[in-house]
Amino acid sequence: MLSRFQVVSLLFLGCTAQSLMLLRGGTFITYSESTSNLEIITDGAMLFNDTIIAISNSTDGLDSHANDEGVQIVNTTGKIISPGFIDTHRHTWQTAMRTLGPNVQLENYFWMFGSGGPAPLILSPDDIHIATLMGTLEALNAGVTTSLDFAHMTWTRAHAQAGLQGVIDSGARVWWCYNVGPVVISGDPYTVNRSASVDQLAHIRELAPNSPFNNGLVTLGIAADPPTVEIIETAQNSSVNLITAHDVGGPFPDGDNVITEVNNLTPGNPTLNSSMAFVFAHASSLNPSEARLLRKFNQFVSITPESEMHYGHGHPSSYLIQDQASLGVDTHFTFSLDIIGQMRIWLQSTRLGLYQETLNKFKIPSNTPMSVRQAFLMGTRNGGLALKRPDLGVLREGAKADVLVFSTDAIGLIGWSDPVAAIVLHSNVADIEDIYVDGKLVKSAGKLVVDWEGQGFADQLRASAVKFREAFAKTNISAFEEGIKLQGSLTDADFQDPFEVDVTRGDGTGF
């Protein structure tokens, strides 16, 4: 008998048919390697299978291929054609927790919703599979064709396999990063298995020979806080090409020098001097020496604008390292999962911060410090570079055919002239009409090709969400709080309440 995971995989075979596609008409946001910038083609055409074969600056420029065997012609006149978005930091397994943390900050996220909280004692492999599948489909629907999934739910081999299968079943392009670290085995008293990494690394070594999975779409990576020599060696010996880690720093207990410490793991040969990609999430307290390391060895950080505002770890200097930075979502159970929103938030928060520096000098800003094109590059090309895949996040000949087609018929887009500004500042997920991943149509006429409702995936996720909420409500969270604080050597003196705003006239604050 087939397992649930095998059945789901078979259901997805229906959306993998490969065709030669000719998009004819419309405005194409292409990328030029020679100018290192976007180039806009109006009334163009593009031919692709899994790879972009040709782009023309005229609607009929590729019509010589119209009668080629297997060619499907799509009229994209009046539409905007964009590369797929790239999210370089997300914990997709948390989908079933949606709306549980609207006001949570980083202090209590760890013991409430993180991998060190009660989740390992509540969620089954089936829960992890449906959460990962539906979370990745949510991202795909939002035009996120490539993701880096920091999968810190590898509590058992079954949980790990379920998470991996979830991204495979989604049809998206994913670097699925197997977390190596301690596993909670009891909440009260708070008990952690600190030897879990032995079997986790063994499992990685077993999985690695089969990576990439799903015809090259899903690639195995490693996540760790922090990476160790053994993890680096396992990656090198198993041909794993990406390692990711959190780097928050400041007053938080992981320290201010994560990037430096990783670079020093292999004495005599800087760890970051590698063809392997290293992606550091947040780098909220980045210092100049670590910025120099990133530039010297061409490694990247993932800025997660909304998350860093929501949780309170901030990004005071991240605007200074955008040449080595990409964008991520982080914990999508607390806010939306689309990169359009992250581009917009990051653009405007960066502008505000730099405008404020000028205003503080009693001067009037005379130009904008960041453009919409720069924000767009952060959500597309820079993500590909972070993964050491310059063929992702761009429309150019030879790039992978991860393509978005935006309808411009919505009331909020009527009258547009600048396609980049239209996407970054005016569009929303509903405007994405068609999506191709590796040349395969995964969203058509505004709906995912996969019938996630008809297949019962929504009901499975709802049941998992109810299960988690009910179990969470019965959990002694204070035991997790005390245990995690002790791990980080934190005391009450390390915390302070910020100023709480008042939005209500008269009594009360509206909080």
TrEMBL record:
tRNA-binding keyword on record: no
Identification of the protein by name: Amidohydrolase
Cofactor: Zn(2+)
SUPFAM superfamilies in the cross-refs: Composite domain of metallo-dependent hydrolases (SSF51338), Metallo-dependent hydrolases (SSF51556)
Residue ranges of every copy of the Amidohydrolase-related domain listed in the record: 80-152, 278-442
Cleaved signal peptide residues: 1-17
Superkingdom of this protein's organism: Eukaryota
UniProtKB keywords: Hydrolase, Metal-binding, Signal, Zinc
InterPro entries from the UniProt entry: Amidohydro-rel, Metal-dep_hydrolase_composite, Metal_Hydrolase, Metallo-dep_hydrolases
Source lineage: Eukaryota, Fungi, Dikarya, Basidiomycota, Agaricomycotina
